[in-house]
Amino acid sequence: MNTAERLLSASDFPEPGTAVDLAVSGGPDSLGLLLLALERGLDVRAHHVDHHARPTSSDDADHVEVICGELDVPFIRHDVLVAPGGNFESRARAARRAAMPRSVLTGHTMDDLVETILLNMMRGAGFDGLTPMVEDPTKPLRNIRRNDLHFYVSGSRFFPLYDETNERLEFRRNRVRHELIPVLCDVAGRDVVPLLARQASLMHEERRWLNELTAEDEDLGLEEADCRELAQWPTARLRRWLRVRLAHDDEGDGVHPPSADEVERAVRVVRGEAVATELGGGTRLSRSAQRLRLE
User: Fold this and answer.
1) First to last CA, the chain
2) pTM for the full model?
């Protein structure tokens, strides 16, 4: 079995001949995604988002366009402008998502999955945050290690781009990648990446089972629920229901659940221990005549 066959056996691409959109930045991960998708026999269309955040960003787009031309792959360039300032990574990610099709495939690997788990742990995430990308059809390379993908790309005739910002330690993900994970591996005396990825998979199965147990709760709207009934629920069930009902948009970067502190304050409102509470996303949860109201 050659390298491409081995990586494809661990990937989760759709059936050959399927039309797919790929996010191709030109880096080794996305270039590996492109080459493997073609090896799989998919009908590929490549998308590249130019944020114009670096002086050379247009050169990157030109480089990807040349590669796509050589591979006879349709290339679509998206020009977006992201204003400098705080939370730039999140806003740039939101701009990418808005520019490309929702079903676009990305080159996230197992290493990206584990980095996301650790970042979410530091935010105090629950089940959802600790099981990212698992069974996500837009992340077909989530079971492939980054180094293996890069080795595959290095054997191709194409030169990948390297974003120098991936080495800058002022970005939290880079510190997790370059500092935290190596320390964890050293302390554990083993490679923790596949260990944490497996843990995420197991937790995902348990989360899916919990979803089945609470399926009837999904049909209960926030403002139609009777607080007297909700107050009798086990706390874990009530928290789970509130997390879904109180999720909010975060600067256009997808839907995010409320923090643990927000959920606890909402529980107090449900149980009549508080009249109202302020929540994220500029919302306020209040209780009147045994009914909840989100404004």
Assistant:
1) 58
2) 0.85
